[in-house]
Amino acid sequence: MSNTHLPPVLQNLSLPVIASPMFIASGPALVKAQCKAGIVGSFPALNARPAELLDTWLTEIQEDLAAFKEANPGAKVGPIAVNQIVHQSNDRLEHDVAVCVKHQVPIIISSLRAPPKEMLDAVHSYGGIVLHDVISIRHAQKALEAGVDGLILVAAGAGGHAGALSPFALVGEVRKFFNGPIALSGSIATGDAILAAQAMGADFAYIGSRWLATKESNVDEAYRQAIVESTAADVVYTNLFTGVHGNYLRKSIVAAGLDPDNLPTADKTKMNFGSGGGSKAKAWRDIWGAGQGVGLMDAVMTVPEVVEKLKAEYMAARKRLAL
């Protein structure tokens, strides 16, 4: 896929897909498989614990992808993206950004707050780009004013932290003032949905939950099976677990001894993304994030199998619409 209005790093993917960084689930094995399949592979910097592990992970991923490229000169290999949580409680931010700059990570995905100028300048110094995820028009405008290169629009139905706006409204309004790179998130689990995201004005589909039910994801088997067995009705929207609203599997909430239909509201000011984390944060490790698209996943597959399936569905949808 080539689109000349996009930054070079986002051109020439095998499919217009950016894999979203997922808490715990996204590690080197998943990222390497995603990149080798020709899409953008990503992980949260905070998944690498302790902080020193981030350098190890990036070295491993970059060396493996370089060897793959050398052995497969004609293959489309997607770039790496690392997610940075821009929040005062994240005491690792400066360290993690420095490690990413050292490795010249081509794409940084910033979350929660618009990245500071120092962070943007550091990434831009070697030609990297910053994509910022947003759930509202106000957040999108603030991020663009800060100087980000592109936006990830997290619409209703996305797994983990998610907004409540319809993707039609969110993409449509953002496109009124921004003509740069846009990725859309929210229940995208099929090739048809990837094409739909492009049809409404996005450049990329931002896909998360679909990778949970892959053999390369860093989750236990019970989580994989829960993804395969669940439907949209099994997804609960709450801010209890992190202070930010998100979507989680009902089954895991029940297993934690909570009533998913009567969850209290969290205090947003108590959010903690620090290197040590809070005791409560650790208690929620078994709360499983998932988007409303889980009902479209019916088997555990490998990443290459998922990408090939998405490609076939994407091309079939284009043919069906005579595109």
Automatic annotation (TrEMBL):
Record SUPFAM superfamilies: Inosine monophosphate dehydrogenase (IMPDH)
UniProt keyword annotations, A-Z: Dioxygenase, Flavoprotein, FMN, Monooxygenase, Oxidoreductase
CDD domains recorded: NPD_like
Any one GO MF annotation of this record: nitronate monooxygenase activity
Keyword Plastid: no
Superkingdom of this protein's organism: Bacteria
InterPro entries the UniProt entry points to: Aldolase_TIM, NMO
Pfam family membership, one: NMO
Similarity comment: family membership: Belongs to the nitronate monooxygenase family. NMO class I subfamily.
The name this protein goes by in its record: 2-nitropropane dioxygenase
